[in-house]
Amino acid sequence: MDNCFKKTGRKLLLSLATLCAAVSADAAVVEHIGDRYIINVSEMNLNGEETLMDVLMMCPEVITLDAKTPLTESLYGQYAVRIDNIGLGIDTETYLKNTRAREIDKIKICQNPGVMKGCGGLKQVIDIYLRKGENGTSGRVAVSGDSYGGGSTYVSALHQQDNLRLFGIAEGNLQRSKDDNGITNHGSHEGVKLNMVWDVTSKDNVELDLSQYYARNRASGEAGAYDRGTHLEFVYLRTLSEAGSYGLVQGGGDYYTQTGVGVHNRSTYPFILFEFAYPIINHNLWVTTGIETGYTGETDAVADYTNRSRYEDGYIQLDWNIGKWGFMVGDRFRVINFWQNELKLGNEYEHTTSNHAYTVSAYHRFDEGNTLQGTFARRYYNAEFSDFVTDGQYYNPALQQMVAGKVYTPDYDKHIAYISELKYTYSKPDFVLGALVKNIRQDLSEGHDNTLCVGTTAFWHKGVLRVNAGFNYFWQKTTYSADNKKYNNFVNFKLAPQVSLDNGWRFTSTLLYNSRKAYESEFYTPANFYADVAVSKSIGKNWLLEGKYHDIAGQHTGNRAATVGVTYYWGK
């Protein structure tokens, strides 16, 4: 369940950019600002046909294990994907596959968004900023199908004027796959997204976003389950000075319905926030302050219970630049009122708790594109609403206790994570090297989990050849009690070469290997091994033909398929 509250901060990015006075007119490929880093896609030496996932593979973090979707397990980091800081709202795989590098201005990766973006658990944020193009209307229609019975359709349209941008997407995705037991799984997803950004005046900006999706999943011989969701969000931004100070009002809500075999859940998330950012003393020191409040409701007809919670947040963040040094410190204080009505047991209770999430970060820019950054963060969870994952499973202590016939009292002191990270980046248009050391200590209801990651990645371009490669090593210890501990260590490897020829041909391949075994089982589980090969051909400016043979290797042999697709671009 996405408990990552919708924080825009568009002007914050611009304001923080003013702190980096030493940055030249041509920005570095990778820049570090505060506790996050930015990939300036427009500064990379790309041919433009690379997909959004191709660019994300540059990150030293383990972004994906299947080259299709970002990871969802907390061990690697859950990712929320956004367009211009507003939730995607449609099928992530379809969007990543159909978005090209030439459409993207920059990508902001926020690893510890507990303060400014108010994300719970270990969720992280990938913000996609679209490139500003010429005035006019453009779009595309993309259709693909595979030999295993799946297929997708993607239609997008973009209208741009000097002070107005209208953006719309409609997508449909049908997939078939087999699990380890040979059972065929059927999944479908349809979604629509409409977005408007309007500069009412030179100082006033309004953004509206509406998205709706419908997803259905079932295994052969079963009735299946569906999810349906609607999201509405609005943003009003007022620029207060030429330096970039601003006032922000943002609000919205979600309506979510899930139906399975006898299950019917509904949740609503109305929220509103007010935020101000302004310099103090001089333009090298900025403060951002805000307040945010929202409501969450959940009903489960099987367990026969209802959960309701209201959160009230206050946050402040300081960003300070001193020459080649940058410092950031921020804190979010949250008060949560939680109500639970256990209809089966006839129990009702109310509980109020509070906690802090804070982040401290510092970076040193040796020269343009050569940066060392260190971050320490404290995060907490809204565990009553399955806000984090352990052992690959969503953890909901409230539901577990109710099934056992017990009353659950939230204890947020047991739902804390401490994250320490040291990251180095060297970036040029033809070469990007990233390395990190990261440790996560995650408290569980009983005991704690400690994960250490050492990783590196490199992107290299020479002539028609582009190569993306990376390696990560994980060491994990889960302590349930003094005499009950589990240890695990594994590696992740990625290799993605590309060859782009002048006549519109492009050949690519992806190899992803993860040696992790089933953590909760003593029996051997085959490692995850994903591989694909693909070829594409541009025909003029309007047509693109693609073919891919995916899931070549690995234990899931029933997912191997050949996919062919065609995309038609229209307008400018």
Question: Quick one: overall form?
Answer: globular
Share of β-strand residues: over 45%
Biggest sheet: strands, sense, closure? 22 strands, antiparallel, barrel
From the N-terminal CA to the C-terminal CA, the straight-line distance is 38 Å
Please work out how many helical segments DSSP would assign.
Answer: 4
* Structural Rg: 23 Å
Assembly type:
single chain
Roughly how much helix do the residues carry, as a percent range? under 10%
Class by helix and strand content? mainly beta
* Average pLDDT level: 81
Walkthrough of the structure:
The chain has 572 residues and is mainly beta. The protein has helices spanning 10-17, 52-56, 92-98, 397-403, and strands spanning 30-33, 36-39, 79-83, 86-87, 104-110, 124-130, 136-146, 151-160, 164-178, 184-199, 204-219, 225-239, 246-259, 264-268, 271-280, 282-300, 305-322, 325-342, 347-367, 370-380, 389-390, 393-394, 416-428, 431-443, 448-462, 465-481, 484-500, 505-514, 528-539, 543-550, 561-571. The chain has a 22-stranded antiparallel beta barrel. A hairpin with a 3-residue loop joins strand 29 (528-539) and strand 30. The longest helix has 8 residues, at 10-17. Mean pLDDT is 81; it is low at 5-25, 383-410 and 520-526.
Q: In a few lines, what is going on in this structure?
A:
With 572 residues, the chain is mostly beta strands.
Secondary-structure map:
Elements: H1 10-17, E1 30-33, E2 36-39, H2 52-56, E3 79-83, E4 86-87, H3 92-98, E5 104-110, E6 124-130, E7 136-146, E8 151-160, E9 164-178, E10 184-199, E11 204-219, E12 225-239, E13 246-259, E14 264-268, E15 271-280, E16 282-300, E17 305-322, E18 325-342, E19 347-367, E20 370-380, E21 389-390, E22 393-394, H4 397-403, E23 416-428, E24 431-443, E25 448-462, E26 465-481, E27 484-500, E28 505-514, E29 528-539, E30 543-550, E31 561-571
Parallel strand pairs: 3-6
Antiparallel strand pairs: 1-2, 2-5, 3-4, 5-6, 7-8, 7-31, 8-9, 9-10, 10-11, 11-12, 12-13, 13-14, 13-15, 15-16, 16-17, 17-18, 18-19, 19-20, 20-23, 21-22, 23-24, 24-25, 25-26, 26-27, 27-28, 28-29, 29-30, 30-31
